[in-house]
Structure formats: C-alpha cells, structure tokens
Amino acid sequence: MPKLAIDRDFLREFADLEKPVQERVEEVFAKFDHATHTGLHLEKIAHARDRRFRTIRIDRFHRGVVLAPESGDIYTLLKVLPHDDAYMWAGRRTASVNSATGRIEIRDSEAIESVRPHLEQMAAAQQREESAALFSGVSDADLRRLGIDPQTLDFARVLTDPVQLETAKAFLPPTQWQVLYGLATGMSPEEVWDELGAAITEDGDGFDPEDLDAAVRRSPDRLVLVEGPRELMAVFARPFDLWRVYLHPMQREAAEARHSGPARVMGGPGTGKTVVALHRARALAERGAGPVLVTTFTSTLAESLAAGMKVLADTPEMLEAVTVENVDRLAHRVFREVHGQPRLLKPPQERELWSTAAERTGTDFSPAFLAEEWRQVILAKQTDSADAYLAAKRTGRGRRLGSAQKARVWQAVCEFQRELREGDLWTHESVCAEAARILAERDEKPYRHVVVDEAQDLSAEKWRLLRAAVPQAPDDVFIAGDTHQRIYANRISLREVGIDVAGRSRRLRVNYRTTAQILGWSLELLHGESIDDMDGGLETLAGCRSEVSGLPPQLTGFANRTAELRALADTVQEWLASDVLPGEIGVAARSNRLAQEAADALVGAGVPARMLSGGRAEEDAVSVGTMHRMKGLEFRCLAVVGADADQIPSAKAITPESEDAVAHANDLQRERCLLFVACTRARELLNVTWQGEPSPFLPGAG
Ligand SMILES: Nc1ncnc2c1ncn2[C@@H]1O[C@H](COP(=O)(O)OP(=O)(O)OP(=O)(O)O)[C@@H](O)[C@H]1O
C-alpha cells in the first residue's frame, strides 16, 4: 500500500495557499492510502533531470510535485504550485541520499550547473592574483567523508569567497551546504563531523543511494510519514505547528528512548526541550504502562504545557492518560486528601513569626536570613534534629556559622515550627514536604511516569514529591531543563533528592526559536559564568546555535525614562506597520512597576497593549510583563526596557556581599540569567533600551 510523506517546507507553504486549493490538496491526498500509484495519476515530466519527480493534478491551475520511488512505496509531497511553476520547479531538481547521514536531499541541479562556469572564471582570475580557493585546506577525502557528493564537491572547489557560498544556500543540498559552511567558518573536519553527529544514524557507508524509501524513513526532521487520512488531516490542520511532526533526530531520540531509570534532556534556550517533554509524555502514554504526569513549576507554564499536550495527544484516551499540572497543585491535592484544606501563612505573617521566634530565642539573625536557612537547608535537606543540622552541608549559603550560632538558629527554627504546628499553619513548602511524606509511605503510586519541564527552578521538596509520586522503575522520571535559565533561588542536586540520571542525559543544540544574531549576543550575557548542572558538574552552552540568520539586537541608551518609553512606542509602531501582529510583540521589564509604565506609554501612544497576568499572550494586544512572566513565552519582536544599571541587577534581589558573599554571587548570577531568559524569548527582532548608565551585564552597550 502506498504511503505518503510530507515535506516540512511544503507544510509551511500550505498555510499560504488559498482555502479552496488547500481543500483540494486535502481531498487529493486523503485518497492516497487506498489508491495505487497508477490510480493517483502521477504524471511524468518531460525532460526532467530526475525521472522520479512527478506531478499530480490538484485543480485546473495547480499541480502537486511528488517524489515517487522507483521501487518501494513511499511518495513524498514536496510542493503545490501553479501549473507551469510546478513543472519548472520539478524539472530542474534532483533527489539523492546523503552518504554520511543516509537522509534524503533535494537540490536545484540546474542552478548549480548554470552558476558553476561563472564561478570557475572568477576562480581562474583570482588564482592569477594568488588568492586561495575557499576549501584549499580541506582534502577531497575529508569532504567525501562528510557527505559531500561529486557534484557538490566539484562546485565547492571553484568557490573563492564565503559570499558565494551564502548565495549557494538556495540551491545546494541543505546538509552538504551546512558542512561546507562549517568548514568555511573555520571548523575542522572533525568538528563538523561532531556537528553532524546527531544526524548520523548508522555507521557511514552502506546507504543505498537509490533507496529513497529508506532515506525518507531516516529523515524525520524533514519528512513526516503519515499513517492514513486521519493523521494527514491532523497534519494539514496545524501547518504552523511543525514541532508536532518534524523532530530533530536528537529530539526524537530523547523523546522515544527507553531507560532503566530517570533520564533528562538539557540544552540552551529554544532548543525544543519543552517539545521533547511533550513528545516524551505522548510516547509514554502510548506505551500504556500507566498514567503520566507532566509537570512544571508554575501554573502558567503548566497551562501552556496542557495546550501543547492537547495539540499532540490526538485521542481522548491519550489525553486521559496524561495529567498536566504544576507541582504545587499536585502537592495541595495530595495534602487535602489527608488533612483537608491547609491554613496557609501569608508572607507578612511569616515574617512576623520569624521575628517572634528570633526574639524569643534571643538570636540576632534577621527574619529573612532565618527564613532562607529554613527553606534552603532545613527543609531542603530534611533536617529534623539539632545534630543533623550541625552536620548539614549548607550548599549555596555563604555566611559561615559556628556551632554556637547554628545552635541558636536551630532554636529559632524549632520555635517557628512549634508555632506552625500549634496554629496548624502551613507554607507552600511545608505542604509540599508533607505531601512528599504522604506519597513516600504509599505503596500505590498515583503515576507510573513523571515528565518535568523547567526543572532548574524546582526546590528540593518539590523533587521529593515527584520522586515519591512514581515507583522506582524504568522510565520513571524524565527531566527537561536548562540551568542557565534558573530564575529562582533553588539549587539542588538531583542525586540528593533520589534521582540519578548518570549516563542518561542528552543535550540539544539547535535553537529553533531565535536568530543566530540574537542567540549569539544573548549567550555573551552569560559568558564566563560557571553554572551547575544539578548533578555535581558544570553545565555548558557550547555548540548551542541557530541556523536562521537575522538582524543583530538593537541596543540604545536614553537620557531619561520618558525618552526611552517614547522611543519604545515608536519602535512598536514601526513593527506593527511592517505587518507584525500585536500578539507577536512582547515588552519585558525587570520590575512590575516599569512594565506598567511601559504598558501605559504604549496605550497612551494608541498601541493596544496589555499587562501579562495569567501569562498567556493575547492576539490583539502587545504583551507587557516582568522578565519572570516572560518565561515559557516567545515573541516575533521583543523589547526589553529599563536595562539600566539601576534596574539590572535589581538591588532588592541581591544579598549584600558583606552579609553573605556566596549568596551575593548567586543572586548576581540569577539576575544575569533572568535577563538571558528575557532576551531569548525573541524570535526575529530584539530591542534593548535603558536610561542613564546601561546594566553592567549588557554586552556591547555604553
Ligand atoms: N523540531 C522542531 N521543528 C520546528 N520547530 C521546533 C522544533 N523544536 C522546537 N521547535 C520550536 O522552537 C521553539 C522553542 O521550543 P521549546 O519551547 O520546546 O524550546 P525550549 O528548549 O523548551 O526553550 P526554553 O528553554 O527557551 O524555554 C518553539 O517555537 C517550538 O515550537
């Protein structure tokens, strides 16, 4: 039975076709799986360079271009174009199998052949001037090993200038172009080979260059094989949600692998960790071993995961097998089942209780210090006695405490906890710790698998709850996160909370969100910072890259806030005038107050703008919010306002160095990470502004 594969570029173009043409495309291909290829009336193309390209009638004016195998039964839909354009497009192209990756490649052979003589002449002229060929330092053997085929190799040999290579992107086979581009930018063949690593599915040789079926199956990042009309309609219904069906091989591997225990996926911003987490949840639900929990640290992020899950889980049974909720919600649910509704302590009440505890026990530690010590050491390490506290490692707490001081802190903590007990008072943390205790004692766990997104921001008691929510079994815990994007104070070690991912970590490197220019500049923000990997080592963003090129971030300083916000309104209006929709624009500020000022300035200038509250961007208004609220969102155009020395780092968020040097350094790092998170929400354009002195974190400002 013939099968249909759809090219990802076509799907994007499908969205731009007129509705009646879209409907015809759906009708024509819906019949595909019960037709034979002859029944489909695939027409040969006279004078085609590659006889495997065929066309199919869509309506009076349009033709589809299909790649038909000579043997095998997978047909690939590549294009739908007006009649003459379709014939021209198909007539000039050839399909081949990349010898390094085994994946399918399509090139515009006619363009390669017609440009080549001109380049050759230029090369000959330059040789007389003794300027070198672009790849003179790379041997043919290396090029071949990296999958460069004879036609591309011959072409590469006449290139003398990187600009020529840029232009050739439009017609060379894409993977081979990337290889050449890597070499042209100074990478060694070994480095390029490593880059190809994820794409190399089997050991180099042995790919049959004629076996297109096998090549299609090896190309899930580019071609999706649809299983029947229902799946076909689902693909056509969401042409923009490419992540739904086309996964990078590394993403697919991370989503589908089987593990003997907990596993995780790491990677810089926009590399598709959330996408992998959702696919993982679907894969686990499909395996049917038991209920899956998908979770994260805020309700806003959980909402967007739930929306993603709805897109992915296409049957009611699958949706039922997967629960999406944030960890606090799970904690409160488990707690309520046993104790009923908790009486929660409000932050001012908590401060008062700490002051009283400090007074009664005669210690001079500040309420804020005691509260942090309780959260980060006593709760985080489950410290339940004075001796345990004396022995506890106080990771992340800089101020050294002698044993006499520790004894006084312990007394104050006991006093605070006594007040909680006697008043039956709880905090979110103690609710979570209690829920973890309840589940740890149960033999029957509520879930079989847990998938955690934005893992870097969860506290130790939350991890303990999640650990206790699933049995220790294969594929029990799956973690997605990036410690470079940690924006809250929790620094934990996965091992200490009973989660061992050793040997089961994967790293994603290709950024699908941001342009290379925005990503490169944002990475500079964190340059030189040592950031832990939650597993005893250091995390790295090395190799994180985007394959999309765009404009560099625009950095501008102003004399005062009024001028800065006036310029913001002008910029946003320019974006709107260039066809960007209001919902595709975001404005981020460090403080809620400045965000509100920015929103007011936009509304005052007649721009529809709304403060982010639930976290969801609205289609008809520019979204304005704090950098914390930006987490998990993305915008075509993003303005970061108030990137001043006074706002970033925010003095309120920084522990004075004199009080605690380690906490001070950690707080500074967190502020950097927050700015990094905000800037990496931009897809195409990023505009960063400040008044007076720029933030010391900004690369290239001032
Ligand atoms: N294979 C893919 N094909 C097309 N688009 C993709 C793919 N993977 C991810 N994306 C898109 O890239 C963007 C970033 O993906 P995602 O939010 O999963 O990344 P992330 O690593 O979780 O990001 P961050 O850590 O910055 O929050 C999204 O718009 C997503 O739809």
UniProtKB/TrEMBL annotation:
Keywords, alphabetical: ATP-binding, Helicase, Hydrolase, Isomerase, Nucleotide-binding
Reactions this protein catalyses: ATP + H2O = ADP + phosphate + H(+); Couples ATP hydrolysis with the unwinding of duplex DNA by translocating in the 3'-5' direction
Keyword Nucleotide-binding: yes
E.C. number(s) listed in UniProt: 5.6.2.4
Family annotation (InterPro entries): DNA_helicase_UvrD-like_C, DNA_helicase_UvrD/REP, P-loop_NTPase, UvrD-like_ATP-bd
Domain UvrD-like helicase ATP-binding: 246-515
Positions with a binding annotation for ATP: 267-274
KW Heme (keyword) present: no
Xref: Pfam families: UvrD-helicase, UvrD_C
Protein's name in the database: DNA 3'-5' helicase
